[in-house]
Structures are given as C-alpha cells and as structure tokens.
Amino acid sequence: MNVSARNDRRGRLVRVACLLTVCLAGTLAIPAAADAYLYWANGATGSIGRATLAGTDVNVGYLDVPSRPQAVAVGGGYLYWADRGTNSIGRVGLDGSDPLPEFISGASLPSAVAVDSAHIYWVNNTGSKIGRANLNGTGVNQSFITAEPGIRSLAVDANHIFWARFTFPNGNIGRANLDGTGVNQNFIHEAGIPSGLASNGTYLYWVAPQYSAISRIRVDGSEADPLFMTAQNDDYGIAIDGSHLYWTELNADGIGRANLDGTGIEPNFIAGLGEPIALAADALAPPPPPGVPPVTPPGTGPSTDPGAAPAPPPPAPAKPDNAFRLTRKLKSRKGTATLTATVPGPGALVLGGAGIQKVSKRAAGAGAVSLAVRATGKAKRTLATAGSVALAAKVTFTPTGGAPSTATVKLTLKLAPRARGSVG
Fold first, then answer.
1. Nearest 5 degrees, angle CA 163-CA 165-CA 167?
2. Quick check: pTM over 0.85?
3. Domain ranges across the chain
4. CB distance 267 to 250 below 8 Å
C-alpha cells in the first residue's frame, strides 16, 4: 500500500530523511495494541504514525525508523515497512517487541510492501522486481515477479497479488497468482496513474490523481468504476478495513475516510499528520462482539428437515445497461468539437484517443453529458499549421456496478484561417 510523493515534494522528502539520526535498538516504547489501528509513513519526519480506526489516539511519532519509510503493512501481529535508505524491509511487533529494522536486507530502493497469511511482498524499484519471503524472513526471493518499469504500489488478497505502475501519461495495474504464475502486466489498462492499491478480496481500489478520483473494480476485472469516488489530486496512499476506505492527503497533511460504497466521505477524518505518504490498516474485518452469535434472517438458514432439498441459489442480479449513443458538433472557429453522450443511467465517462486531450466526467443519472474534443501534442500542431486534423475519438462509458462499453467516432477538427497558430 504504497505511494511515492510527487516530483515537487520528492527532493524535500530526501533532504528530511538525510537529517534523521534516530536508531532503532532495544525494545521500542510502543503501547500494546488493544484495538484496530491505522498506520502511516510520515514523509516529513521519517517516522510512522498511528491512530485507531475511529480516528482517536493519534500518535504522529508512534515509531521512529532509522532512515526513509516509504510504505507500511500490517499482518500476523507485526508492523512492516519498506526503507529505501537501508534497502531493507523492517519489522516490529505491534506490542513493541522484537524490533528488526533490517528484517529482510538486500532490497533495491523498496517502495511498497504487502503481507498475507504466508508471505511478505515488496517492490524493488531497481529492475522493477517484486520480492517475496516467508513471514519468518526465510526464503527470500528478490526477483519473485518481474514487472514493467514504474511499479510503485502493491496489494494482496487471498488469491492474487496486484501492482500499480505510476507512469505518465497513463499507468496500468498488473496481477498474478500468489505463487507468481499467471502474470498479467495489463490486468487494468489506463488506470489513471495509480499511486496506491488496496483489495478486500471483492474489489480492488486505487488512487487515480490524474482523474482526482478513487477508482474501483471487482478483482475478476468486471464492474470497473474509474470515478468511483471524488478525491484530491494529491491523494496517494490507500487502505481498507471491513467497513471503511481510508486515503492519505499529502498536501492537506491528513487522512480521509469513506464507507466502502463511496458514501459518507470525510476528507479531513484525521488532520495534522505531517505529509502522510503511505497507509495500512491492521483489521480487514472487525470481529463480532464476544458472546453474540451471528444473526440469520428468517427463512434464509438451513432447513431443519433432514429430507428437505437444499434451497436454490438466489438469481444473479441483472447487469446495468452500458449502451449509449454519441452525437457530435464541430466548431471550426476554435478547432474543437463537442461529443454528446446519452447514457442510460449513472456511471463514468472517459474521452480519449491518439492526439486527443483526455476528459473524464461522471453521469449522475440517465441523460446527456457533453465532452469537449481538443487536439493535443502533434495533432494540435498539425491543426495550427494545416488548419485541419483527422482524429478518432474513443468514449468509454462504465455504468455504476456494470461493465465498460466503448464507442469510437471519427471526426476532422477544422480551424478557421484567421485562428491558425493560436489553437487553445
């Protein structure tokens, strides 16, 4: 669950990290964990902070580390962090016991770390490798999976490991089985420069600063929602528990929170944290209260009649309609065009294509949504000099909870002679 700070902050983070001289030795003064917590890496101080999942008991300097924590993960009663300064993965018990700042050494600029019930995974930026080891630190494999350049974030669930490429102009998300087989470098294409990942086994969530959004998709690749929830373009880390989604807000020095369905957004859930750049939660599903049996709704539990046939499974819900219609209008005076998408319901619209400036919008319901078509790059220069340029605009509509549908429209942008050389 990692994130690298954007370029304009990277230099400052490096300078701050170089000033840290705190050594991790002996038993750390960490109170015993009696509740579920959020942990985050502080880019400004080089420490790791902690607060309860309710946002209380905030401790910005919960743990000082020797160098530059870039990512945090929690599992099996331990807190792990990726340290680029020492090229290692650190570990400490949640009760402060057994501190090992170089629990796994030999990494190469590690920028992400994730944990499941059997293994630790991390990103080696040099060589774009994903490393893996057993939870006890044995069986280290620094080249467990070879990814593509630009990998920054990791997430793991019961079946897969996911990684994100923080690359311009558009990144992607890869996926593989937990044993390293079935590598798919483009499991999700054009993910909006993803900078953080989290999975609860049903959905995969990621931060998409390019779209100022948090995106979501089912772990089988269906029901993509690139604009699942509005966020800021400085959001980077992300984590989830059994009921909430959390994200770091780098410029606001805080952490936001929302329900897993995207409602109840609290952008300043925890404030004043000093550049949080990575995030982890130590409880995916809160346990039921002690002594309280699970409640089974009437008529849904097993039959008490031994001869009764098993109840049939409930019918699968119908997929939302993803069919939509496009109309176009050229504006030769400005060298632009407008595509109007008529959609059947709420969802996300993304306009793109070679030489076309990307546009993302959300439809609140059925109706028409306007998308401005503007040339960019080489196509923009051609329009300014030649007065026209032929383009193929691609529009993708992803209904909320449904599968994406893409339509392509060929059009020629034309610019009036008196406006040439000043394309907007």
1. 170
2. no
3. 7-281, 325-419
4. no
